[in-house]
Amino acid sequence: MLPLLSLLFSCGKGTPPAAGYYGDHVVLGYDPVGDIITGMYYDTKDSIPDPDCSFYFTGKYIGKYTNTIRWLPGQRNNRDIFGFIKMKGQNEFTFYWEENLQNCRDTPDFASKKINLSLTQAEPWLFIQTVRAENAIVHAKPSKEAPALGYVQQDVVLKILHKKGNWVEVVAGKKNQLRGWVYYKNLKSFPS
Fold first, then answer.
1. 26-31 and 127-130 strand pairing
2. What is the dihedral of CA 103, 104, 109, 110, to 10 degrees?
3. 89 and 109 together in one domain
4. What order of strands is seen across the sheet that includes strand 127-130?
5. What does the DSSP assignment read for the chain?
6. CATH number of the CATH domain containing 170
7. What is the per-residue pLDDT across 53-108, written as a single tens digit (0 to 9) for each?
8. Domain check: are 69 and 108 in the same one?
9. How much is the pTM?
10. Does 4 reside within a domain?
C-alpha cells in the first residue's frame, strides 16, 4: 500500500466541487465561505443505511487535492482516518483513505484503490450536518413561532441550504422530501 502523503498541495485553487449526489452512495456539500467540503458515504443493507459501513468526511478545499478525515457515525472523536480527495474538474473526484472499513463486503476498497466518483445530481447544499437533539422541529420559517412541518430524529443527516442568524434551512430524506428551518443549536457541529 502506498503511504499517505501528509501534505498535499496544488498550484492554483482550481474549481471547487459541485454539491450533490455522487453515484448511489455519496452526498457532498461545499461551503464557499470557509472552503469546507463535508459529506457522507452510505452503504445499505436491505435498503436501510448500514451504520457500520457508512462514514462522514470533511476537509478544507485547497485546490486539486483536499486533505480529509473520515469517521464512523457516533465515533467522531474516537479515531479519525485520514485520506484525500483529488478533484478532476467540478463534477468528478477520487477518494483515497489510508485504511478500509472492516467487515463491509459491498463497500469499495478505498485503501488500495482510488475510487472515482462522478456527480449524478447537483444540489444547492452548503454542507452536511446531523441532528444533535433527540427530535428537532422543522419549521416553515426561521422562527420558533412558525408552523412545524415535521420532525427529524437524532443523527439524521441534513443537507444545509442557508444560514440565517441561529437558523439553518435544511432538506432531509433521500429524496429531500422535507424542507424547512431548524434551530442551529439542535445540530452537531459536524456529523458525529
1. unpaired
2. -100
3. yes
4. 127-130, 157-164, 167-172, 178-183, 135-139, 148-153
5. -PPPPS----SS--PPPPPEEETTTEEEEEETTTTEEEEEE--EETTEE-GGG-EEEEEE--SSEEEEEEE-TT-TTT--EEEEEEESSTTEEEEEESSPPTT-TTS--TTTSPEEEEEEEE----EEEEB-SSEEEEESSSSTTSPEEEEEETT-EEEEEEEETTEEEEEESTT--EEEEEEGGGB-SS--
6. 2.30.30.40
7. 888 888 988 888 888 888 877 776 666 788 888 888 889 988 888 887 777 777 78
8. yes
9. 0.79
10. no
Do 116 and 24 share a structural domain?
Answer: yes
- Give me the number of domains the chain comprises: 2
Residue 93, in any domain of the structure: yes
Closest CA to 54 of 20, 25, 84, 86: 25
Please name the amino acid found at residue 166: N
Q: List, for residues 1-58, the tens digit of each pLDDT value.
A: 333 322 233 334 667 889 999 988 888 998 888 888 999 888 876 556 677 788 888 8
Q: For the chain, give the number of residues.
A: 192
